[in-house]
Predict the 3D structure of the following.
Amino acid sequence: MRRIVTFNNVSADGYFSAADGGLQCAVPDDEIYKAAAERPGIDTMLFGRRTYEMFESFWPHALDDSAGPADPHDARRRSPAVRNQAIWINETVKVVFSRTRKEVTWKNSRLLHELNPEEIAAMKNQPGQDMIIFGSGSIVSQLTEHGLIDEYQFVVAPVLLGNGRSLISGVAKSLRLDLLEARPFASGNVMLRYAPRK
Amino acid sequence: MRRIVTFNNVSADGYFSAADGGLQCAVPDDEIYKAAAERPGIDTMLFGRRTYEMFESFWPHALDDSAGPADPHDARRRSPAVRNQAIWINETVKVVFSRTRKEVTWKNSRLLHELNPEEIAAMKNQPGQDMIIFGSGSIVSQLTEHGLIDEYQFVVAPVLLGNGRSLISGVAKSLRLDLLEARPFASGNVMLRYAPRK
């Protein structure tokens, strides 16, 4: 069966974004970008609208020529790890859940107007590789509620946000996990991987 | 100078208590209780009222004779690690910040009606050993705001709460940390220790 894996940057005080949606919880880490650019066995990404639009504003253009030294994304674009990640993200199937979007035009994207747990369960039974979710707190919460997530990956950044939004909320029951890995990086980021306890 | 260290159980989704204040984020761990019972170099605990009252309802009686097999705390009381921790907690100086409490009667306790950052800074300059804060989200947030915390210790439990309260909130500026340690335990708990970056 195809697995669903979540991947999120979170702050040490447990926020995945600032109150205004900003991603100050991420501490740049080429080691992790490199690992993220080499995701064997994943052929599909699932998104909430907000995270999709953040990705849509950067990745389709990440391989464009530099807009010059004043371009804040320029340094990132020059990194080979980010270039590999851009190729991977643009080529991978992207499923975005949104009640408000009318269409999606980014390459290999597909729009679904609602998250139907039975449809997701059916996707897991289709032939194919695993699926990954970046960010997308609302989608992660709904899939957690329905027991559809197979692995949670948190990159805990060495930063206290002090305030912000929690990744998972509104889920009625707590869920016991098994720790799969706790891996510190030189940047101070720590990767924590968990699977729901069977 | 005396240091202030925080110690908290948090869930993998970043909550330090359920919405109702329950501590389902903690996964029992005798290895960690044992380490907690041997805290050399700490002679003072700082508390918010809510956490103080949770401690006050258990620890002063933790060495009493068992109330019989139906007593839910009985198994904990029999653990030597918990007995050592009880002795340590009862003997240590406890400072509780509360606007509403009129008095405190638990051994070695002292009541302060407000958290005055200058008073805390003065305490750090007094002779003595380090100070520790368990739980007490509001106190941790206020001391973080004033840059008075020297080390943050999080025990990340292998559980998703799905909903709850964040330890730190209402702090205006984010704070960059250095990772001191990332240590997994057999229980699946992971100890993450950080110091504010100088």
User: Anything to note?
Assistant: Chain B touches chain A through 44 residues (CB under 8 Å). Residues 4-196 of chain B form a domain with the Dihydrofolate Reductase, subunit A fold (CATH 3.40.430.10). The two ends of chain B are 15 Å apart (CA to CA).
